[in-house]
Write a structure and sequence with these properties.
Order of helices and strands: EHEEEEHEEEEH
Number of strands: 9
Structural class: alpha/beta
Radius of gyration: 19 Å
Shape: elongated
Number of helices: 3
Helix content: 25-40%
Length: about 210
């Protein structure tokens, strides 16, 4: 069942989805899903550069903890009875931080609430975080994760780099578990790419002489 639609006239889309996703009773508690996290590297970061990882800017429709699916002409619907463990912006922020910890020993990732002074700030904007039925409602969807990343030097607020980064993963089937597994694969690849891109830009623009 579809919990909510963003456009009028999605009744047909909801009916199509009901044929490929198991229905749950109206009063059934939602099943909560999380994304897997990469293992920390355990590397001691003595000379690492601190990067503040901001909470991503997110379209209002994707700012909650519902699992989004894209239908024809960009219409979004949400799966009833299933949700992320935390809202999507925090989900993505946490995975970026964890990816830096796991894959980029030259960086130390910090959140704004950590209260740490960072040399750079990573600001991201979520462009897509959804399962897309590109081949029709009867075929497994492709999960698409896309972000716009901006790296800002904290000392002078200069924008030093900007890029669009993303990944996609074809679900192995049409069950919720298979779709969530595709979300996991696409998210892991995309956030690892964000972490790698950040490390490359920091290496290019880091100036240890003028770090205070």
């Amino acid at each position: 069942m579809i919990r909510k639609t963003l456009t009028a006239g999605l009744m047909g889309a909801a009916l199509l989805l009901s044929g490929c996703i198991s229905l749950l009773p109206e009063n059934a508690p939602a099943t909560v899903y999380r994304l897997s996290t990469p293992e920390p590297s355990g590397v001691v970061r003595v000379e690492a550069v601190i990067v503040g990882v901001q909470r991503p800017l997110t379209p209002r429709a994707l700012s909650n903890n519902m699992i989004a699916m894209s239908q024809q002409r960009g219409q979004l619907v949400f799966i009833d009875g299933a949700e992320w463990i935390t809202p999507v912006p925090r989900l993505v922020q946490d995975l970026i931080v964890e990816s830096m910890d796991a894959f980029e020993p030259s960086l130390i990732a910090a959140r704004p609430e950590d209260g740490v002074r960072s040399e750079f700030e990573l600001a991201t904007e979520i462009r897509s975080f959804e399962a897309n039925y590109l081949a029709g409602p009867d075929s497994p969807p492709t999960v698409i994760v896309r972000l716009r990343a901006r790296l800002i030097r904290s000392t002078d607020r200069r924008l030093v780099a900007v890029d669009a980064i993303g990944a996609q993963s074809l679900s192995s089937g049409n069950t919720i578990g298979e779709i969530v597994a595709a979300f996991d694969a696409a998210s892991q690849e995309a956030m690892a790419s964000v972490a790698q891109w950040t490390a490359e830009q920091v290496a290019e623009h880091h100036d240890p002489v003028h770090v205070h």
